[in-house]
Amino acid sequence: MQTTASPRIPPVLLREVVRLDDRRLPIAALARSIGAEADRRGFTRPSYERVRQLVHESRAMRRRRRRGPSALQVLAEAAAGIRPTGSTMDAIATPRDERR
Fold first, then answer.
1. What is the pTM of this model?
2. In terms of domains, do 21 and 33 share one?
3. Could you give the CA distance from residue 18 to residue 50 in angstroms, rounded to a whole number?
4. For the purposes of burial, counting CB atoms within 10 Å of the CB of 93, is it exposed (0-12), middle (13-18) or buried (19 or more)?
């Protein structure tokens, strides 16, 4: 039996990881789906461990995108006149996840 290793995951499979991960599907099921997609496209199947890492990275990126603006962004918006200056200190004092 020949063993193969895939040093890089093709971008199309990375997009599939992000598209399929809705946090309801177990990572093992997601890894099987990604493996089947790799087979269909003629790519080497990524390991379960690599798919698991990619899922966790994708989820972390989603969490960061949902966060509100940083304190620096709030100050820059106030300086540019985009944000009312009266709310600047309130916005900075508010936890980042609650800022808008």
1. 0.60
2. yes
3. 14
4. exposed
Pair (56, 82) in one structural domain: no
Per-residue pLDDT of the chain (100 residues; tens, 9 = 90+): 666 665 688 889 999 999 999 889 899 999 999 999 999 999 999 999 999 999 999 888 887 776 777 778 778 877 777 777 677 777 777 776 666 6
Is the same domain home to 48 and 89? no
39 closest CA partner among 10, 15, 19: 10
Assigned domain for 2 exists: no
- Residues 42, 4: Cα–Cα separation, whole Å: 13
Q: Which residues fall within 8 angstroms of residue 90, CB to CB, at 6 or more apart?
A: none
Q: For residue 88, give its domain range.
A: 68-100
Task: For residue 6, give every residue at least 6 positions away whose Cβ sits within 8 Å of its Cβ, in sequence order, or none.
Answer: 43, 44, 45, 46, 47, 50
